[in-house]
Batch of 3 targets.
Target 1
Amino acid sequence: MKELNIHEKLNIVQTSLKVEKGHKNNFGKYNYRNLADIFEGVKPFLNETGCTLVVTDEMVEVGGSNYIKATAVFADHDGNEIKAYGWARESVNKKGMDDSQITGATSSYARKYACNGLFAIDDTADADSMDNRDHLSQLKANTKGEVKTRTNDMVKLKRLSNSVHFKGAKTKAGLTIEAGVEKWLKEKDRTQEEVMEKYIQLKDLEEGFKQENKKEAA
């Protein structure tokens, strides 16, 4: 079997990794997975592919607000690597938490979503409990050529641009928000960082429209 490149190795992890949502939020009545679950689930595949996962984060100011920008790096022994980013806004005040706890919780959230993007984990639906590690050898054998990896950042941005709260809103160029985002994406190849920065800007804009709608309805 030929030596796999970094994209093929990541493809194996993305198509094999299953992380069950084994925790339940009793207040919100939903199931969820945490960062530790993802780390535990991916370890066998790191061993199989001979790769490493390193996750770091940093504080970034965007529009006067503090965000944690997490970076997940999937790397092989030849020094090749693929990165994915996750962003989380630091809450100004969270009841029952001191400043260090707020930052720590935000860091965990951002790191989790960086890993979600890197390993193509969909956090909008419950993952099944099926373990696909038995298919790892077959996936390796069937992998041919370079496999392009994808994250869900662009999909999330396009979905947000179609928010009901943007109905009737126009950009400076006279386009709808959705058309403006589509044009922006097509202008050139955008990095994950650029896409997430645009997502944060759009999320803040959506929040502004929500507040305006509440005032008008009051």
Target 2
Amino acid sequence: MNEYQFQPLTEYREYPVEEMKQRAEELLAEMKRRRSVREFSDRPVPREIIENCLRTAGTAPSGANRQPWQFVVVSDRPTKRKIREAAEEVEKDFYNRRAPEYWLKDLAPLGTDEHKPYLEEAPYLIVIFTKRHTVEADGSITKHYYLAESVGIATGMLITAVHHAGLACLTHTPSPMAFLRDVLKRPNTETPFLLLAVGYPKAGVTVPVLTKKSLDEIAAFV
């Protein structure tokens, strides 16, 4: 069994309490501006920005430090079209046959349906996969742990990084999502977790007026 080497914690920075409060307030104010958009500009986005956002996501904690995520970045137009066509096919089945009435009722105010043009419009689609295990060079298997928790944390950090960089994004979870593995020719050890459309918001785009739950509703202090 390989053991980790340990070293002194040098990266941590402690701030005066008042500065901590200010930093927390500033981040809250920045993240309150974050909105999901469904219409994207075709303005190009430098790949370097996306790469650094992914590096940020890659710093996320994970079970046993296995880092059970794989990010597949799609900018190729034909591939984006294939993803859109496949996604709209499963979404059409969802909206017209599989979705229960209460779900459709909750979605109705948002105006969503099976049409997903943003899957072609956005400069980048980032498809996030969970990796059940890794096959090492010698053929041995390295198991991964807490897949959903680890990949969920990394995805949240990716969304935060995208917003912090000045871009917009939209989470998309077509059901089922197995077609993403087929279109992108990923191994069967990977399972699609979420699709993130990333780019500049289209000029004049509108978003619904939403109310977030208060702190009292989402947190309890014991």
Target 3
Amino acid sequence: MSRMAAFTAALTLLTNCAAPDTTQGTGKLSDMFATPDWAKFSNSKPTAQRAITPDDLVSADGRCAGTPDVVTAQATPEGGNGAETRNDAQASGLPVVQGGIALAMTECQVVQRTGFPDRVDIGAEGTTRITTVTVTHGSSPGLYRFRSGRLVSIERVDVPAPAKPAKSTKAKKSQAAPIRGTQQ
């Protein structure tokens, strides 16, 4: 009988756990299988995005339109001081932002995350601005396509392999031991 009593107690416990909560209202069994509010489809429209300003657009040389050119003074090998434009992630004049890249970002937001682009193509389809930015370095290389200043597609690009260090061509001298002949 003890096995039957244990089985009955376990069955009663499981039945009570699966029973609907009758203290919360209707107490219908169908409420137990209802989809929670957080999992229901929402047919709401996406939130409105702010308008694109000229400061959000990249110029043909890869810099954001609202930022000044960044020039650094470096000493030349001859000893004079020469001004040289930087060609790195900071050349856009904007601080590099760590983070991902998402569709609908502005041109300058993408350039902030990828660094200075290798190539920028700006065109138009009617009155719509079409921009293509190519980046082959950094953590997010790719071909970024924009329409009206917003990112609409990202494509993979072939990144050149890093240059291998040249091997040393020093002549290796043979350390062969001299052969000794036997004397008789």
